[in-house]
Design brief:
single chain; mainly alpha; Four Helix Bundle (Hemerythrin (Met), subunit A); 22 helices; disordered C terminus; Vinculin/catenin; CTNNAL1; Alpha-catenin/vinculin-like_sf; Alpha-catulin
Length: 724
């Protein structure tokens, strides 16, 4: 960002002392930052000899470029006659451009090399885990198993730390969700591997015990392989990942194409639209063919599918006429056809969502008592093979129901990360079901075996845990469908328990009582409605990585968490949490204003441009006011409530302004794209972004699913292994 400031600096005949000092400060800041960066790069080079030469060259180039920029911006002495021969940014603008290019390319090279080292560390760690797993598979005595498993546990802890850091660094939400799913499998399987291996060692001639153990090893190897695929961004044998399209995403894309006809009648063919609808309707067969879909839902889905075909036929007819003759009546008919088609698709989406979520709610409620698992444990201890066989059939039926539920939920999950979570849940039920059955059969064959009983408990716990996770997933899917975000995307920089800043320790956390919640409910509701409006505006932008969009989404997510606070829900538990969140919200608003200023520099002059800048200035002012309010010290219950009220009121005002700013920026972007197909130059808010996006402080709830502590406990508890 500092380099962009220098490059975009406009030459003016009259140079004030203030301007000269500012330029010099920027140059020095760049040089100092490069120096710190290069020091880290050189330290990495010394620790990794295979890349030392490449890294050292890149570091030298970066340091040289930083020093050149510092020299060219050393303009404070320009007013003195003896400095006339001194080459500066004013006399050699191309020199600064060259130095900036060299700096950016060398810094990028250092980052890429550092990234290669991190990837290599993860692959090396995975290879160590795999090698130790092979030893564990072949082990034949308890004593040997204890020694090797202790080593395996330490290696898994190291792998967990490395992959956890990598997961937090991933920018792609889809990859992040896949990584979280793989790491969750590894955590659960570590305990399964321990008990399954112990059971196999205790009962070496038992076929069901061997099948049970082999299943765990196989699943762990698949999870390890998936982690490496994500880290290296590759697929085995060069395969392309073909994720099945969900009904939700299909309808969203279809509606976007239909609504695009308002602006351009010729950008796609009628065959394209027909094919898109056919694909969506093929996917609805997953619901209509399912034995678990109610008769009422099936009839409604079939009826809406038929209506969708008719609405599209009518739309295509009017659309073809409008292409030949653009009359006012025809354009009005086209608008009506577009609205009716979109409304029909919305109703279809609502119907499949209702079918999937009602089925899920019913199944989860029905199976939450875990009666089949309890029966398997009891009959297993009794050694009743006939009863175990009867209950394993019931568990298989339950597994089929839950797998089908996951498949249907994936269609209506609404976001790619939630889709991946549904796929992970489906795999978990698919694999864990047979593993419980083999563990129960082993116990029935050896009813007095403590380790066989413990092994069955571990697999049953994994099943119960997944059922519990499904309830949470169902709430998240409903939140997305209803335009709420819930806690899954809340952007928080809150201090975690026990880690509050020293200046906050003296403050007593306060919660709102019922009366105070009632007073502030209306304001909270207004905030909730505004978050939905902002979400709708950000969804219109094609480039979801755009810094304006990301800051807008971050602010909306934070505002939603503040709304939840007014209801006594969500992650903001105390007034101090709310005030801290308000500060972060205001900071994010200031960043958005900066992004809007940078964006306005890239677009051509337009009537909307001055208005955008004016509104951006208003945003800065309002965010400063909010920060002052949030930081103000208050004493007493009444004063605290007044401060809460003021913070939420000012947050609401900022969100209201955001609802005006986002469409204004979008309109300006569309005008420039329509006018000449591109902006004036590569936008700095897209190309030269420093890592300050909204994800920087957002702890992903699923990012911590790989319980390192529990893994370390497995290793510690190895001393209690039976050694007979």
């Amino acid at each position: 960002s500092q380099i962009t400031t220098l490059i975009n600096h406009k030459d003016k005949p009259k140079r004030s002392d203030k301007t000269l000092q500012a330029i010099q400060r920027v140059g020095q800041a760049v040089n100092l930052a490069v120096g710190r960066f290069v020091t880290v790069g050189e330290a990495i080079a010394n620790e990794n000899h295979e890349l030392k030469e490449e890294m050292s060259v890149a570091c030298i180039e970066a340091r040289r470029a930083g020093e050149t920029i510092a020299q060219l911006t050393d303009v404070a002495s320009l007013d003195h006659p003896e400095s006339d021969s001194h080459i500066t940014i004013f006399t050699d603008k191309t020199g600064v451009v060259k130095a900036a290019r060299l700096l950016l390319s060398s810094v990028t090279k250092v980052l890429v090399l550092a990234d290669r080292i991190v990837i290599k560390q993860i692959i090396t760690s995975r290879n160590k885990v795999l090698a130790t797993m092979e030893q564990l598979e072949k082990v034949s005595s308890f004593q040997e198993f204890v020694q090797i498993f202790s080593q395996f546990g330490n290696e898994m802890v190291e792998f967990a730390h490395l992959t956890g850091d990598r997961q937090n660094d991933l920018k792609d939400e889809k990859k992040k969700a896949r990584m979280a799913a793989s790491r969750a499998v590894l955590e659960k399987c570590t305990m399964m591997l321990l008990t399954a291996s112990k059971t196999c060692l205790r009962h070496p001639d038992c076929e069901s015990a061997r099948i049970n153990k082999d299943g765990v090893f196989h699943r762990m190897r698949l999870a390890l392989e998936q982690v490496i695929e994500i880290v290296t961004d590759s697929r085995p044998n060069g395969e392309n990942e073909m994720a099945p399209i969900s009904i939700y995403s299909g309808i969203k894309e279809f509606k976007n194409k239909v609504e695009g006809l308002r602006e351009n009648l010729y950008f796609l063919s009628k065959e394209n639209l027909s094919t898109m609808l056919e694909v969506i309707l093929e996917h609805t067969e997953d619901f209509t063919d399912s034995a678990y879909t109610s008769h009422e839902h099936r009839e409604h889905i079939l009826e809406l599918s038929k209506q969708a075909k008719m609405e599209l036929e009518q739309l295509v007819s009017v659309w073809m006429q409008a292409q030949n003759q653009k009359t006012k009546d025809l354009m009005e008919d086209l608008e009506v056809a577009i609205l009716k088609t979109c409304q029909c698709m919305n109703e279809l989406k609502r119907e499949v969502h209702s079918a999937a979520t009602s089925l899920a709610a019913d199944l989860l409620k029905y199976h939450m008592d875990h009666m089949v698992l309890k029966a398997l444990k009891i009959t297993g201890v009794e050694g009743n093979l006939e009863a175990v066989a009867e209950y394993t059939c019931k568990l298989s039926e339950q597994k089929e129901q839950l797998v089908e539920m996951c498949r249907l939920l994936r269609h209506v999950s609404g976001t790619e990360p939630l889709e991946i979570t549904c796929i992970h849940a489906e795999d978990t039920f698919q694999v864990t079901g047979p593993q419980i059955i083999s563990a129960a059969e082993t116990l029935a064959l050896h009813p007095s075996s403590k380790i066989a009983k413990e092994n069955l408990e571990v697999f049953c716990e994994a099943w119960e845990s997944q059922l519990s996770d499904m309830s949470m997933l169902l709430r998240e899917i409903n939140d997305v469908f209803e335009g709420r975000r819930g806690e899954k995307r809340v952007y928080l920089s809150l201090p975690r328990p026990g880690k509050h800043n020293s200046n906050l320790k003296a403050l007593k956390p306060v919660k709102l009582d019922t009366e105070e919640q009632a007073k502030i409910a209306k304001l909270g509701l207004e905030l909730h409605l505004l978050t939905s409006d902002v979400d709708s505006e950000t969804e219109k932008w094609e480039d979801q990585e755009n810094e304006i969009v990301q800051h807008g989404q971050g602010m909306s997510s934070m505002a939603y968490s503040m709304y939840l606070f007014t209801r006594g829900e969500g992650l903001l538990k105390t007034t101090q949490d709310l005030f801290h969140q308000a500060e972060i919200f205001a900071t994010e608003g200031t960043k958005l204003a900066s992004a809007l200023h940078a964006f306005s520099d890239q677009v051509h002059d337009d009537d909307d441009k001055p208005l955008l800048l004016l509104e951006a200035e208003k945003l800065i002012s309002m965010c400063k006011q909010l920060q002052i309010t949030a930081k103000a010290s208050v004493q007493g219950k009444s004063a605290t409530f007044t401060k809460v009220d003021a913070c939420i009121l000012k947050t609401r005002n900022v969100m209201t302004l955001l609802c005006q700013l986002l469409p204004l920026g979008y309109r300006l972007l569309r005008k420039n794209q329509a006018g000449n197909g591109c902006l004036k130059a590569a936008p700095p808010w897209r190309e030269d972004r420093v890592g300050t996006g909204t994800n920087a402080h957002a702890p992903e709830r699923r990012a911590e699913t790989y319980g390192i502590k529990s893994l370390e406990n497995h290793v510690t508890n190895m001393t209690f292994l039976e050694s007979k």
